[in-house]
């Protein structure tokens, strides 16, 4: 890990600053939107706009990079992000904010594609797994720090919009001045969604449902906190709890993932997450209990995303793993777009607790589907020796197909190494 940090510290620092700004403005939308009198439905559309832009950006960024290069794309999108962030208090209209969020999502996805390519290119075959882990840890830390900054200004003023704009502007300096060479960018042959579903129904459905869950946790948690009557400090702690849980439980779940039938682990992780959401539904305004629910909910949901990617790889040929990455990110993005309006509608019907009700419904449906799928297909984990390869890689839903593809390449390498060792023993 020290070698990775030494060679890519500038890129990692820039990414952390970028995530701090992104995290701050994400929660600020919910708090300031309520102050402006936006309805829950309008706030959910604003949250959904980010994921809509992110999905389109992740599809178009590779074409933009091939046409004009990494540096120009990176600089142009960065300028748009900084400018857009300070336009929110100027245009205090729900639909204008939704349009601005689409722009933010589009630009950030392009920036992530660029930086993930840079980081991947800076790593060696021996350090690529550590680089991916460092990248995801930096993102989580950035999200948590951003929530802390929510307390350093009045949400009804301008300062909290200026801070993320400054942070995003500063984030590009270390990345653009880094000595890492501009990487070559290649597009992998895509895999159709129908083919992906045929190969692994649970992986396909699970990634769709995780889009629902992540967009609820990232896009609607601050809106839920505002509707529940929590203060700014409490909202920042609640949103942070999801990512703290992700940091705490990521390694234990990853360790188990490489040592047992992943379908069973998907079943129980989704079940625990669903039960936590049920507790949140009945917790009312018991803030201490809700913080614990947030830690468990985020601690199960975020590793579940990585777990489903590893599970999907178990049913893919090595040559198809990279091709599947685009499909996995796309189906997750569709779920992320639909998530906030669904949560917003449920909250408008039953109140703030609809936030937890939505997550409970989705997670229990995933639990039931995982249980049913175990009756439809024999396990690929037939023998204890099948658990020898370390194939779980931490990937956050905020990553693009570049990060997912890197995780799948690591799985393929582990699979090939295991095959070589088995051949030598024979």
Write the layout of secondary structure elements.
Elements: H1 2-35, H2 40-68, H3 70-85, H4 94-122, H5 128-149, H6 159-176, H7 193-199, H8 201-227, H9 232-257, H10 262-282, H11 287-313, H12 321-350, H13 354-373, H14 401-425
Strand-residue proportion:
under 5%
Radius of gyration: 21 Å
Mean pLDDT: 82
Q: Please work out how many helical segments DSSP would assign.
A: 14
Helix-strand sequence: HHHHHHHHHHHHHH
Helix content: over 70%
What does the overall shape look like? globular
Q: What is the end-to-end distance?
A: 34 Å
Number of strands: 0
Stretches where pLDDT is under 50 for at least 5 consecutive residues are 383-389
Biggest sheet statistics: none
Structural class: mainly alpha
Walk me through the structure.
This protein is an all-alpha fold. It is 78% helix and 0% strand. It contains 14 helices and no strands. The radius of gyration is 21 Å and the shape is globular. The two termini are 34 Å apart. About 2% of the residues have low confidence.
Give the tags:
426 residues, mainly alpha, 14 helices
Q: How would you summarize what this structure contains?
A:
By secondary structure, this protein is mostly helical. The chain is about 80% helix and about 0% strand. Helix 1 (about 1-35) runs antiparallel to helix 2, helix 1 (about 1-35) packs parallel to helix 5 and helix 2 (about 40-70) crosses helix 4 (about 95-120).
